[in-house]
Write a structure and sequence with these properties.
It is globular and about 40 Å long. Helix 1 packs across helix 4. It is built from 7 helices and 7 strands. The longest helix has 14 residues. Strand 6 and strand 7 form a beta hairpin. By secondary structure, the chain is of the alpha/beta class. The chain has a 7-stranded mixed beta sheet with strand order 3-2-1-4-5-7-6, with helices on both faces.
Amino acid sequence: MSASDRIQWDRRYRAGSYAGREHPTQLLAEWEPQLPRGRALDVACGAGRNSLFLAGTGRQVDAVDISPAGLERASQSAALRGLEIRWIEADLEEGAGETLPAGPYDLIVQVRYVNRNLLPRLLVRLGCGGVLLCEQHLDSMEEVVGPENPAYRMRHNELLRDVMNVARPEHRVLYYREGLVMDPDGRRAALSQVILQQKSTA
């Protein structure tokens, strides 16, 4: 991700973008009781809505994003709630293998951030029994929220193919869905969602 991208995201956060989106993504909220406890990694955390939710459940959370402004807002929200989260500023497209924490993690969350080269680097950071929850914007003819650039939307079954292409024998897909979802703030989104688990014994 270029310096111009970082500047663009900083401007958005400083202008108050996404200020009302404090809820976790619905898929994460619904599956949370079934997901492993312990260490969690939130990839491209933005202003931290999913990180804050996970920390509130007692998990030890590392949260990574390129935007200092987004991380600053997230850190302030965590302080107000009395939550401890490790906020990490890092470019996830340039040298992500080095900038991501090493793991292992019990839970890794990647929500609405398209980076087609990142999946293998996330899977190797899963511990035994660890789960990857990934949610991406889906290409749609409907009026939905999210990026207008089709490069940042998944095609039909693309996310599932990407996961299966890098999955190893010890991985299994627990859930896959494509379709329209109504976010808690009333906005309609077209999403592709996958939950994958690494078996407890390889």
